Amino acid sequence: MKYQGKELVVCRDGEELCQQAAERFVRLAGEAVSATGRFTVALSGGTTPQRLYSLLASDQFQPLMAWSKVHFFFGDERCVPPDHPDSTYGMVRVALLAPAPIPWENVYPILTEKGDAQSVAAEYEKTLKTFFGLTEGQKPRFDLILLGMGTDGHTASLFPGSTALEESGRLVTANYVEKLQAHRITLTFPAINQAANIIFLISGQSKASVLKEVLEGQDQPMRLPSQRIAPVEGKLLFMVDQAAGSKLVNPDGNGVL
Ligand code: 6PG
Fold it and tell me: Are the CB atoms for 235 and 198 separated by under 8 Å?
């Protein structure tokens, strides 16, 4: 169904969510490869997409992908080394990048060990500019950006009230997150919103209230960063499970929402 310009898909549970997300991933990759010869995707961290990543590497989905044509980027990263348990790159490497036949030169991690948070962000911005052939002021157009959402309404590492929410020029920025007492590296709104497809994966009862606020509440751009995901010329899809969608108004009267 359509939700004020956004599409919403409600799946039975986390497993069905990731199955359906894997099917869409394969479909979008196929379309992009047919149209342009490559598929550029920025991955999200957190727990929700881990099953998606393992599914993509599984016997069910692995043979369906032209892996050598896929270029993997990251929407955000924690400032820890790649072998740290909190590293998004580390998680994705174990679940997907190592088990699937992905050429390592197609993987563009955020290199957290190459300096302080600001220089790591600047370096990743350079990586994006080089790969996408951007001149000053241009933005990358990813074929797909995957996002998650926290119970506080954050997405990528764009946390409520944080300075990165104000960033209008850069593609990538270092963001100090007060409640984590830590820096994160994140794509900015202008970079994310240029994507051709943006898919949120949201699972679990703990997300139900904030999802309702994000989709059905008033605009609160500083408190609910997820509300500011709005592709300039692309598609925005919320894929949620029934638990996360349990507080939404039922627009179809079909009992799903
Ligand atoms: C990260 C992501 C973050 C995540 C949400 C949802 O933590 O690496 O940047 O935005 O997607 O916090 O995380 P869960 O899927 O664990 O709920």
Answer: yes
Q: Ligand 1: which residue has its CA nearest to atom 7?
A: 46
- φ/ψ (deg, to 5) at 174: -85, 135
Report helix, strand or coil for 63: helix
Which segments of 107-250 does DSSP mark as H helices, in order?
Answer: 117-132, 189-192, 208-216
What phi, psi does 36 have (nearest 5°)?
Answer: -130, -5
Cβ of 192 closer than 6 Å to ligand 1, yes or no, is no
DSSP annotation of 102 reads -
- H runs (alpha helix) in 2-145: 14-36, 50-57, 88-92, 117-132
* Beta-bridge partners for 176: 183
Q: What is the pLDDT of residues 125-183, one digit of tens each?
A: 999 999 999 999 999 999 999 999 999 999 999 999 999 999 999 999 999 999 999 99
Separation CA 137–CA 189 (nearest Å): 14
Say which amino acid occupies 129: K
Instruction: Specify which residues 172 forms β-bridges with.
Output: 187
> 3-41 pLDDT, tens per residue?
567 899 999 999 999 999 999 999 999 999 999 999 999
Minimum CA distance residue for ligand 1 atom 13: 46
**Is the Cβ–Cβ distance between 211 and 147 less than 8 Å?**
no
| Whole-number Cα distances in Å, 153 to 36, 48, 61 | 34, 15, 31
Q: List, for residues 169-206, the tens digit of each pLDDT value.
A: 999 999 999 999 999 999 999 999 999 999 999 999 99
**Mean pLDDT (the chain, rounded):** 94
Q: How far is the CA of 103 from the centre of ligand 1 (A)?
A: 26
